[in-house]
Write a structure and sequence with these properties.
Its EC number is 6.1.1.14. Helices cover 32% and strands 29% of the residues. It is built from 13 helices and 24 strands. The protein has helices spanning 3-18, 40-59, 75-81, 83-86, 150-154, 157-164, 209-227, 274-278, 303-314, 349-366, 377-387, 397-402, 423-431, and strands spanning 22-24, 36-38, 64-66, 72-73, 88-93, 100-102, 123-126, 130-132, 142-145, 170-179, 194-204, 234-238, 250-258, 261-272, 283-285, 290-292, 295-302, 315-318, 325-328, 339-343, 369-371, 391-395, 404-409, 415-419. The strands form seven sheets. A seven-stranded mixed β-sheet has the order 3-10-11-17-14-13-12. Strands 21-20-22-23-24 form a five-stranded mixed β-sheet, sandwiched between helices. Strands 4-9-8 form a three-stranded antiparallel β-sheet. The longest helix has 20 residues, at 40-59. The structure holds glycyl-adenosine-5'-phosphate. Glycyl-adenosine-5'-phosphate binds at residues 148, 150, 180, 182, 191-192, 195, 197, 199, 264, 266-267, 298, 300, 302, 304-305. Glycyl-adenosine-5'-phosphate binds next to strand 11, strand 14, strand 17 and helix 9.
Amino acid sequence: MQEKDEKLMEKIISLCKRRGFVYPGSEIYGGLAGTWDYGPLGVALKNNIKNLWWKKFVDGREDMYGVDAAILMNSAVWKASGHVDTFTDPLIECTKCKKRFREDTLKEKGTCDECGGKTGEARLFNMMFATQIGAVEDSSATVYLRPETAQGMFVNFKNVVDSFHPKLPFGLAQIGKAFRNEITPRDFIFRVREIEQMEIEYFVKEEDWQKYFEYWKEEMLAWMESMGIDMNKVHELEVKEEDLAHYSKRTIDFEFDFPFGLKELYGLAYRTDFDLKKHNLTYQDEETNSKFVPHVIEPTFGVERTFLALMLSCYKEDTKGEEPRPYLAFNPTVAPVVCAVSPLLKNKVELRDYAHIIYRTLKDEFGRVMWDDNGNIGKRYRRQDEIGTPWCIVIDFDTLSDDSVTIRDRDTGLQERIKKEDIVDYIKERMN
Ligand code: GAP
């Protein structure tokens, strides 16, 4: 990692901790590798990502059906899907210090990153987390925490078809947790053991797969752009045949220029009829009165990687002043806080009371509104800039006589005076 990039990652990680976005998992007990906890602003950002995704890909469409399947599934699902046999990563152990690595993460092939010792032969390591169900501790009671949300949709294919009789093409969509026993969790929230996925299984006739593959590629790009991901940092990678997952005939990885390298952000796979066939599921086409196995296009999105790509895309430093002013230029729809409300002086009851009425009105309207009366106004602006709040509203002595407030823009630092009753429309217009 270059020094500049390393500094950017350090800044993001420190901001996330300091301002309540992301904390190390189980921190007071020394942490747990590959797990992270999300604080108040992190939850808000994650919820916004997930809600916007659901709005665009499920509620906004006429051909999509949402599901929320159980995390624990019958082990037969993972046997049939091929995960028991093939969901593996090559694991390498150092012969000297015994530390374990994923083969492709080693800086120098054959040499341990930790102690410089010689590494042994690679062996395959299954990444599914296994646990026991019920009181019996034998292999018949072994279940897995799902490593992808996709199978929860495939196994409910028949249920949804029977309830809703959708015509092809149509999709199932799910947002939920998935778990992977990553050999080397790393790079902050980029590679973690407990992940959240937003996935779509889009069912098509075989002859249409290329058309819908292209369609979903455009949809995924449009989503990234609408979220505010820096599109100059997004690159498409056609996955080589020998690197394709066991279920895929074609995959495009959308890679992002992370400070630690060009890495997968999202994936788009043509899963053929692999999964439905494995689960013995078919589709009865009422129009042609024929029975067949639909093919699947799968756009898949990681919540954590979206979060990190957004942080990296939106982090800016305004260097016009004496000191650099860091701010997160989030889209207002994505920002954890839409606006902050402040009385100019903390201890003036008239200002506080007036500000509180405005705060309550805005909170009822937008929900994500923060009350901020801590420190002087300059400090409040800096704090709100750092967490990406698009607007700060200040109630001062003039407000008491003319019912106008100061509204300050995060990106430009410019302030305007507007009437109290215009605040909601002012924000709504800009949010749209
Ligand atoms: N159903 C297909 C599937 O799971 P994948 O490429 O293994 O495909 C999908 O994962 C997405 O989940 C990735 O593009 C990435 O955004 C996210 N993801 C996968 N493993 C992850 C990990 N260990 N940490 C964080 N995100 C991960």
